[in-house]
Design goal:
By secondary structure, this protein is mostly helical. Helices cover 55% and strands 10% of the residues.
Length: 102
C-alpha cells in the first residue's frame, strides 16, 4: 500500500520528496540542480535517490524534455497540503497505525 511505501522511505528519500513538493510550489519547474542546491547534496546523489523513489512507486513524475533537462514533480493528487501533512505525520508516527487514501 501507499502507506507502507511512505513509512519505509529513508529520511533522505522523504526529504527529497518534500523538497520537490516545496520547490514546485515556489519556482514551478524542479530539476536535479535545484534539488541539489536546496538540500546541499551532489546532483549524482539526487539522481540516485530519485531513481530509488521511482522504483518504490512514490508518486513522483519525471519528464525529460528535448533539451535533455529533467523536470520533477509530485503527482497532481498528492499536491494537496492536507495529504502532505498526513505524510509528515505518518513519518513522525512510524509505530502507529495510519492509513492514507489509495
Amino acid at each position: 500500500t501507499l502507506t507502507f511505501r511512505f513509512k519505509n522511505l529513508s529520511d533522505r528519500e522523504f526529504s527529497i520528496f518534500l523538497a520537490i513538493y516545496e520547490l514546485e510550489q515556489q519556482i514551478g519547474e524542479v530539476g536535479f540542480t535545484e534539488l541539489a542546491s536546496k538540500l546541499n547534496l551532489f546532483e549524482s546523489t539526487i539522481r540516485t535517490v530519485i531513481y530509488n523513489l521511482l522504483s518504490k512507486e512514490i508518486p513522483i513524475l519525471k519528464d525529460r524534455f528535448f533539451h535533455k533537462k529533467v523536470s520533477l514533480s509530485i503527482q497532481k493528487e498528492f499536491k494537496d497540503p492536507k495529504i502532505i501533512r498526513e505524510l509528515i505525520n505518518l513519518r513522525e508516527n512510524k509505530g502507529r497505525q495510519t492509513t492514507l487514501p489509495s
